[in-house]
Specification:
7-stranded antiparallel beta sheet, 31 helices, alpha+beta, D-amino Acid Aminotransferase, Chain A, domain 1, CPSase_lsu_oligo, Dna Ligase, domain 1, Rossmann fold, 33 strands, magnesium, CPAse_ATP-bd, manganese, 938 residues, 35% helix, metal-binding
Length: 938
């Protein structure tokens, strides 16, 4: 059936600010759906309150509504604009819940809006735990024994009948919120209370816990002809008991027998057909008994899921893009395969490589948090790696995590405490993968590890092979290392820095040079969805070690944009927004744009965003070899946050051009001593400060500059490791901890301006002119990290003198640092005196917010200035904000009920939303201002 021509305008509901359990994978899906519908000539409107994402940018939709995600906001849009249909399946649980609420209140019917991509009845069947259980029983799909409970009485009765261990699953929640395992009777009451409170309908499913069973996911698509295809099978490395968002996952499934897979596939199709007759995508989760291959269904989500983004990137099959076309009437055989361009979308992708996803946690930001993994998701981001084998992909994923690891071990960061290791194997946390390797290195038998972790023996034997290879490698020196053995190490994912560590007394560069002299180089393979059966037209690559290289460099002028790696607190989706605009600006300026990134959740790693995508770790060895192959005119590091910026020194040392501000000038801004000398020279005030390399020096410095002091390491993002201290004893503890966590670093000690106001400026400089992008005033006082502060654009209470000083200092610093591109400066204002706290010559967390509020494409302008194709005078910049815009930080404390909400110099928010107010009499603003100091802590 061709598309439904009665659908001329569609509203896509977004997922709102980034929280744990619902991150930017839904913004990726929403962006892809919007572009897909626009291709069909459909007018696309988006409602989403998140200013940090590319999804809410004019390059994605025809109309963007940056409004709170409420039924009232939706109705305002429906009054303003004729909307034919709503697509609620791209915005996670938030969008589905909003769609159901609007349906119950008769909003869609009142305005003549159709729901496409899902049935409301299907949402009800899948979200209501009892309805789902009963449906599975009716269609003959296995489920764990369970009972529904709406009260303490019903919950206790259910527990008594089913027996422990139990799992509690609240209805209508996301990311496992409110759920958990109960191993014994004494834990039950507290767990039941948490579940009943978390569910919006105060309903939980009390279910038998199948701990230790294997867990799988299937991603499905169905058209209106009832054709169903399986896009991807995903296997959890971790067994049942850990939320899929916190599990290491592998695609395709590695340890599944063919008969069990066929059975699972048939059951998934039966489940999708049973929940309704809608056309679109869904995600099904199963559990398999490792002893006898018995299968039970865990849940089905009638929307694109967290895993859909991963499955799209894993297969090269753009699930959200195709699902949105199915929603407007097309059948699968009528849609073009986006990769080959010659076959149809009615096929099941075949992978001749392995994908590994590893989550990224930020427990360091939540002091006192329970770090054990369970049913409630706790990770803040993820990385994806592609390799020819599982072990190659796993090592690449470890290199991508941004936690200072060079791969899976072999980097000097192993644990030698056997008690800690065995406890960590039994009680899974963020580092269990590394502890498995450490245990094997210390001789713990594989079977003992399997019994305690319940991880499949095949995965463990793969990791054990690394231990054998390391032992073998230590028999050689670099000069007598046989070529075939060296080649085997590289095929198993060992980085040059790991090999250098294992050999001892050699450097990474020496290993690299030796490898090149032996002719062992990375080659690049295309992600083609069909195991090379058809020629692919899409330039989407991963590296491995083989003979044939499929990435043939063009002779065009090219620019590489370095991505920001996994989302984490302090470095989120706003940097991906900047990277996407950098790619678009490079294309518009006539360059071939090349992206290097490893984050599967984001739009920058969509295969049609850059001219060429390398889905690789933003890790020096990988970046270096791509640069050698492609020979770009330069590399943009300003847009990828601290991840990209940290690469600047290596690029500079190797004579690779950094586009925009030079390495030396960026280093002045990062090095507190050099920067303060510059401020002194420019006659710009700054807080008294000193630098220390140990606790004794720190105490001397602190007494010179005066307490309270702000203590922080050099070269960090998101306030990592920062604290405010008020005496020698606290200072000593803080410094010892910092130097323990970040060895080799220096500690900066600034006098803390107590009760000061905090403000910031963003600007663009082209080397001659400086344009102030925006001045912002924080509602909270100095001492609360800028990322955790409510910030107002333009400032609401600063005097003309203070704002003039901020502008003057911004321009002086931009010129002194010869900034070409972006500059963010943080200020403290006390008694009308403006002090500069820090300057960052890169895209900041706030530029996307300001760009949306003023409706000016600032990153696009900055990228063209960096590339040297434009000067600021070439642009006609007109701000369009009426009233004020407030940046609202959003926290995920509900995932850590044991952590108190305290705010200080270390950032803790996971996302942000934008709110527009007409004036300062707005009751929302007045309440914020009243509560401004409430959560300030050290």
């Amino acid at each position: 059936m061709p598309k439904d021509t009665s659908i001329r305008s569609v509203l896509i509901i977004g997922s709102g600010p980034i929280i744990i359990g619902q991150a930017c994978e839904f913004d990726y899906s929403g962006s892809q759906a919007a572009l897909s519908l626009k291709e069909e000539g459909i007018e696309v409107s988006i409602i989403n309150s998140n200013p940090a994402t590319i999804m809410t940018d004019k390059v994605i939709a025809d109309h963007v509504y940056l409004r709170p995600l409420t039924v009232a906001s939706i109705e305002e849009i429906l009054v303003e604009r004729k909307i034919d249909a709503v697509l609620p399946t791209m915005g996670g649980q938030t969008a589905l819940n909003l769609c159901v609420e609007a349906e119950e209140r008769g909003i869609w019917e009142k305005h003549g809006v159709r729901i496409i991509g899902v049935d409301v009845a299907a949402i009800e069947k899948t979200e209501n735990r009892e309805a789902f259980r009963q449906l599975m029983v009716d269609i003959g799909v296995g489920v764990a024994p369970s009972k529904i409970a709406n009260s303490f009485l019903e919950g206790k009765e259910a527990a008594q009948q089913i027996g422990y261990p139990l799992v509690i699953r609240p209805s209508y929640t996301l990311g496992g919120s409110g759920g958990g395992f109960v191993h014994k009777k004494e834990e039950f009451d507290a767990a039941l209370k948490r579940g009943l409170e978390a569910s919006p309908t105060h309903e939980v499913l009390v279910e038998k816990a199948v701990l230790g069973w294997k867990e799988y996911e299937l991603e499905l698509l169905r058209d209106s002809n009832d054709n169903v295809i399986i896009i991807c099978s995903i296997e959890n490395f971790d067994p049942m008991g850990i939320h899929t968002g916190d599990s290491i996952t592998v695609a395709p499934a590695m340890t599944l027998s063919d008969s069990c897979y066929q059975d699972m596939r048939n059951q998934a199709i039966k489940m999708m057909r049973a929940i309704g007759n809608f056309a679109g995508g869904c995600n099904v989760q199963f559990s398999v008994n490792p002893d006898n291959d018995d299968i039970i269904a865990i849940e089905i989500n009638p929307r694109v899921s967290r895993s859909s983004a991963l499955a799209s990137k894993a297969t090269g099959y753009p699930i959200a893009k195709i699902a949105s076309k199915l929603a407007i009437g097309y059948n699968l055989d009528e849609i073009e395969n986006q990769i080959t361009k010659t076959t149809s979308a009615y096929f099941e992708p075949t992978l001749d490589y392995v994908i590994v996803k590893v989550p990224r946690w930020n427990f360091d930001k939540f002091k006192g948090a329970n770090m054990e993994l369970g049913l409630q998701m706790k990770s803040v981001g993820e990385v994806m790696a592609i390799g020819r084998t599982f072990i190659e992909a796993l090592q690449k994923a470890c290199q991508s995590l941004e936690i200072g690891r060079a791969g899976l071990g072999a980097d000097g960061k192993h644990s030698r405490n056997i008690e800690d290791i065995m406890h960590g194997l039994e009680h899974a946390s963020w580092n269990r993968l590394f502890l498995i390797k450490d245990a094997m290195s210390m001789g713990v038998p594989l079977e003992s590890i399997r019994k305690v972790t319940r991880i499949d023996k095949w995965f463990l034997s793969q990791i054990q092979e690394l231990v054998f290879l390391e032992t073998e490698l230590k028999r050689y020196s670099l000069n007598n290392l046989p070529k075939d053995f060296f080649f085997n190490l590289k095929q198993k994912g060992f980085s040059d820095i790991q090999i250098a560590y294992l050999l001892g007394n050699v450097t990474e560069d020496e290993v690299y040079d030796r490898r090149k002299s032996l002719g062992i180089r990375r080659v690049y393979k295309m992600v083609d969805t069909c195991a090379a059966e058809f020629a692919a037209q899409t330039p989407y690559y991963y590296s491995t070690f083989e003979d044939e290289n499929e990435s043939i460099p063009s002779d065009k002028k090219k620019v590489i944009v370095l991505g920001s790696g996994p989302n984490r607190i302090g470095q989120g989706i706003e940097f991906d927004y900047s990277c996407v605009h950098g790619l678009l600006a490079a294309k518009e300026s006539g360059f071939e744009s090349i992206m290097i990134n490893c984050n599967p959740e984001t739009v920058s790693t969509d295969f049609n965003m850059a001219d060429k995508l390398y889905f690789e770790p933003v890790f020096w060895e990988h970046v270096r070899e791509i640069i050698e192959l492609e020979n770009p005119i330069g590399v943009i590091v300003q847009l990828g946050g601290q991840t990209a910026l940290k690469m600047a020194e290596k690029l500079h040392e190797n004579g690779i051009k950094i586009i925009g501000t030079s390495y030396d000038n960026m280093d002045i801004a990062e090095d507190r001593g050099r920067f303060s000398d510059l401020l002194k020279e420019l006659d710009i005030p700054y807080p008294r400060y000193g630098v220390a390399e140990n606790a004794e020096e720190a105490i001397v410095v602190a007494n010179e500059v005066g307490y309270p002091v702000l203590v922080r390491p050099s070269y960090v993002l998101g306030g990592q490791g920062m604290s405010i201290v008020i005496n020698d004893e606290d200072l000593e503890k803080a410094v010892v901890k910092l130097l323990g966590d970040l060895p080799g670093n220096r500690v900066l000690i600034d006098h803390f301006l107590d009760r000061a106001e905090e403000t910031e400026s963003d600007s663009i400089s082209d080397g001659d002119d400086v344009h102030i992008v925006g001045l912002m005033e924080h509602i909270e006082p100095a001492g609360i990290h800028s990322g955790d502060s409510f910030a107002v654009l333009p400032p609401f209470s600063l005097s003309e003198k203070v704002m003039n000083d901020m502008e003057t200092y911004s321009k002086k610093i931009a010129r002194a640092l010869n900034v070409i591109g972006l500059l963010n400066i943080q200020f403290a204002v006390k008694d009308e005196q403006v002090y500069v706290i820090e300057a960052n010559p890169r895209a900041s967390r706030t530029v996307p917010f300001i760009a949306k509020a003023y409706d000016v494409p600032y990153i696009n302008i900055a990228a063209k200035v960096m590339l040297g194709v434009n000067k600021l005078k070439d642009f006609n910049i007109e701000r369009k904000l009426v009233g004020y815009a407030i940046k609202e930080p959003v926290f995920s404390y509900d995932k850590f009920p044991e952590v108190t909400k305290e705010l200080g110099p270390e950032m803790k928010s996971t996302g942000e939303s934008i709110r527009f107010i007409k004036d300062l009499e707005d009751p929302y603003f007045l309440k914020l201002y009243k509560d401004k100091s409430m959560y300030l802590s050290k």
